[in-house]
Amino acid sequence: MKARQRHLTYLALLALALLFTFGVSTAWADDSGPVDPAVAAAMSQSNAPVPVIVFTDGNTDAVMATLPSSVDITSLPSLDAFAADLTDDQITALANSPDVNAITMDGDVQGMGWSDTMDFTNLAINLGAVTSPSDGGPAGAGVSVAVLDSGVSNLADLRNPDGSSRVVAFKDFVKNRRQAYDDAGHGTFVAGLIAGNGASSTPLDQGGNATMQYAGVAPQARIVSLKVLDKNGNGKESNVIRAIAWTIQNRQQYNIRVLNVSLGGDVTGPIETDPLAMAVETAWKAGIVVVTSAGNEGDFGPGGILSPGNDPYVITVGALNTQQTASTSDDAVCSYSSIGPTFYDEIAKPDVVAPGNRNISLRVPWSYIDLTAPQNRIAVNSYIPSAPSWAPPVYFMLSGTSTSTPVVCGIAALMISADPTLSPDDVKARLMATAHTVPGADAAQQGAGEVDVAAALASIVSANGYALSQKLGTGTTVLPADTYDRWNDYKWTKYRWTKYRWTKYRWTKYRWTKYRWTKYRWTKYRWTDISWTRYRWTTLIQGE
Ligand SMILES: [Ca+2]
């Protein structure tokens, strides 16, 4: 009964969120009538016409007909509303109409276009210079991105305008459930950065009333969700490897061209001994762009790249701080972003950096991270000024390289939707060739630099064979020999697992990639479901 009640509560809130998304404004008006206080203030300050949005009960045409024909009216049919500059008398008359639900200010968002309402993450990667999807620009249509994570919640921003879900497949390696879910809330956040369409924060020029739109990079891409992490962000490596095998096997059915791996573990030996590296290489050779997190071990210094980010084939992404400004001139590599080269193989990593500090994406109500970090919920009235303070938050904020990785996955989806013939190596070569150097950071921190989606889409670079990240040495050529001992001490003092407490974690700097060391220790593997030596990767790739 309890579970059922909670479920119903959730549905009720979800329904509320959906109604809100589509701009139903009946409940917004308070006891002072339909005129928003900001409108009343503007009316009292001068006699000039006030730019307002008038929300109706559905009889929009009838309400508009009461205004003089000289008034320039912009109809907003999706909202049962219209926008106009109205005199005090006209506003007062409308406020007394039984058909008018609310009159709100229209000043701040009028005329805002595609890039004007873009959040700092999308501005930093130069998405504003790309033709908008509504004008025929690339949006990742037809491309599926597989997300190895904690699952996905089927939220409004992951649906098509007709209501159908863009989560085209869900496979649960943790609990074997059939219905898509995300009890942690992390996988949905990742999916939103890749393919969220910002439906819950639609700006005025698209028929909504938000001042800022929180959309993913590839808003028409599809998501294939592979749940390998549990509610607390832990997962068995055997399940991660099974999920990668599933991705390879099903890549043609769903057109999976990109794989997001926002998790990582300890590097305990050379690449050849790392089963996760073997798995991601196999996916890469099968034609899937694998994008993975560098890790959040920047404070350790060189050598802090995690597995499978240590693999030379894949694209390893570090985190960039946009400083929450539109300009990229102040962008800096995050202090916590793992620094290369890799242990044992001394591969030059990360390959690129992308925004990974205070990124905003989808919130899963009552998920683990939502309940643990309620302060990271984004208030709806921070981007829809006319929304009430109690509107259920749709978006959430997280930081770390697990949030910069999906940004690059979104770019890869755009590149492939624009040119389906691109190989994973072409995508990697173009991303790296067009990245901008971040001032104040060396190559071991930023790789080729900050990604630029417009430049990557325009690039004609093609890879000659595998675009392997450069091998710099043989284990101690670059890294001092004592780095390895230092790492063992570092990870022990930092991750004393039995004493680990979530409550002490600083959620504003949430670092998802940290929590998996014990599961990735090669020496500690217990293969309950799969035997590495018996697994035949070559059978998963046609022609190899
Ligand atoms: Ca900036």
Bound molecules: calcium ion
Summarize the amount of helix as a percent range: 25-40%
Give the strand tally.
15
* Architecture per CATH nomenclature, i.e. the level-2 architecture of the largest domain: 3-Layer(aba) Sandwich
Mean pLDDT value:
82
Instruction: Give the distance, in angstroms, between the N- and C-terminal Cα atoms.
Output: 54 Å
Describe, in plain words, how this protein is organized in 3D.
This protein has 16 helices and 15 strands. With 544 residues, it is of the alpha/beta class. It folds into 2 domains: 2-105, no CATH class; 120-125 and 140-539, Peptidase S8/S53 domain (Rossmann fold, 3-Layer(aba) Sandwich). Strand 8 (256-261), helix 9 (275-285) and strand 9 (289-293) form a beta-alpha-beta unit. Helix 6 (186-195) runs parallel beside helix 11 and helix 7 (237-249) packs parallel to helix 9. The longest helix has 20 residues, at 2-21. Residues 1-31 and 496-544 have low confidence and may be disordered. The site of calcium ion has 8 residues, from loops.
